[in-house]
Structure formats: structure tokens, C-alpha cells
Design goal:
Structural class: alpha+beta
Number of helices: 4
Largest sheet: 3 strands, mixed
CATH superfamily of the largest domain: YefM-like domain
Shape: elongated
Helix content: 55-70%
Length: 79
């Protein structure tokens, strides 16, 4: 992982954009970690993993008795 200050990234943005395609770039601002630059393909991979995680959690919730938004609305309308 590459580390850089916000000023370095600002002054050499293109270089850090290229590096972010190969590895994450941690950006520090006022001495603390502030952001991470990652390539778009890595971002897409992380989004897909998050979607998969939430899908698994939804399936587990349904198995444990959660009825979902449509059924909840029907139950509330009956009340």
C-alpha cells in the first residue's frame, strides 16, 4: 500500500491515480489517515461483496421469521 499526503496527491494526482490501479493509496491530511484511493475494478469488487453480504443477511432474516416489506405492509393494513 502506498501512503501519501493530501498535498502530494494534489500535486501529482495522475501518478497516484495510476498507482491506485495497482494498489490502494492511503491519503493523509494533517497527520491522520483521511481517504483511500482505489481503482475502479477494486471498487466494483467491493460493491459486489457488499451486495452479496446483504443478500445473505436478508436470506438469514427470512429464515428466522422476518416476513419482508410486502408481508409487513399487508399485516399492518389488516390491523
Amino acid at each position: 500500500m502506498t501512503n501519501a499526503t493530501a498535498t502530494e496527491v494534489k500535486n501529482r494526482f495522475g501518478e497516484f491515480m495510476d498507482k491506485a490501479q495497482r494498489e490502494p493509496v492511503t491519503v493523509e491530511k494533517t497527520g491522520r489517515r483521511y481517504a483511500v484511493l482505489i481503482g475502479y475494478e477494486e471498487y466494483q469488487r467491493l460493491i459486489a461483496l457488499e451486495d452479496k453480504l446483504w443478500g445473505e443477511r436478508a436470506r438469514e432474516a427470512e429464515k428466522s421469521g422476518f416476513v419482508g416489506p410486502e408481508e409487513t405492509l399487508k399485516l399492518l393494513e389488516r390491523l
